[in-house]
Design brief:
It is found in: Cell inner membrane; Cell membrane. The chain is mainly alpha-helical and 225 residues long. It has helices at residues 3-6, 9-14, 18-59, 65-74, 81-97, 104-127, 130-158, 167-223. It has a domain at 3-62 and 130-223. It contains 8 helices and no strands. Residues 1-6 have low confidence and may be disordered.
Length: 225
């Protein structure tokens, strides 16, 4: 078999040492898992952004708050994150407002706490599995590098049994070791790009949610006067 055949990707993987094969298999599994979560988070964040836009249009169109609340309650399975935040705050507001002995400031503070708790749950849900993508992006190159170092060590150990070291003898072993680094980079680069993008999108949604909570709290404060 000539060097060109030995250096084909499939041949390199087949003839790699057991440790390098395990590293390649692990990195391939991690890469496939990260791509799964990349697509899942992309759709989830896009859906959250679309539903947030829709609810903000409905809310600031001047509609009745009771009607918006009933709509959120009746269609809870299809409501967005911002709609659930509004629902939690308005539910707490109506419950506390019915108690005549409670100070108006305490009523608004209770609504704000209800919104804050729901806000935290929604942000946690949007951020789920982002830590996995960050870990893939930071660890995969080192795992691939470990496979490469091991493969190169294995290749040079094989030279000990040869009387003459030639390029044709050492090149396949070094090349198969470098495949591990390539797979590690293939797993890491998309994960890093996706993590940075999704983290930015979640931060922007978080700012919109916090702005809404403050503005809605001001509306409730005026209603208590």
């Amino acid at each position: 078999m000539n060097i060109t055949q030995d250096l084909s990707i499939i041949e390199l993987i087949i003839h790699a040492s057991l440790v390098v094969k395990l590293v390649m298999a692990l990195l391939t599994l991690v890469s496939l898992t990260s791509w799964y979560w990349i697509f899942r988070k992309a759709f989830a964040i896009r859906d959250a952004r679309t539903r947030t836009d829709k609810f903000e249009r409905d809310f600031w169109s001047g509609g009745d708050l009771n009607a918006l609340y009933q709509s959120a309650v009746n269609d809870r399975h299809h409501s967005g994150a911002l709609e659930r935040i509004f629902e939690a705050g308005y539910r707490e507001f109506t419950k506390l407002r019915g108690q005549k002995t409670i100070d108006p400031t305490a009523v608004v503070d209770g609504a704000r706490r209800g919104m804050r708790a729901t806000y935290q749950r929604e942000i946690d849900d949007l951020e789920a599995h982002l830590a996995f993508l960050a870990s893939v992006g930071s660890v995969s190159p080192y795992v691939g590098l470990f496979g490469t170092v091991w493969g190169i060590m294995h290749a040079f150990r094989g030279l000990a049994n040869m009387s003459t070291a030639t390029l044709s003898a050492v090149a396949p072993g070094i090349a198969e070791a470098l495949v591990a680094t390539a797979i590690g980079l293939f797993a890491a680069i998309p994960a890093v790009i996706a993590y940075n993008r999704f983290a930015h999108d979640v931060d922007r949604l978080a700012v919109r949610f916090e702005s809404f909570m403050e503005e809605f709290s001001n509306i409730l404060q005026r209603q208590m006067r």
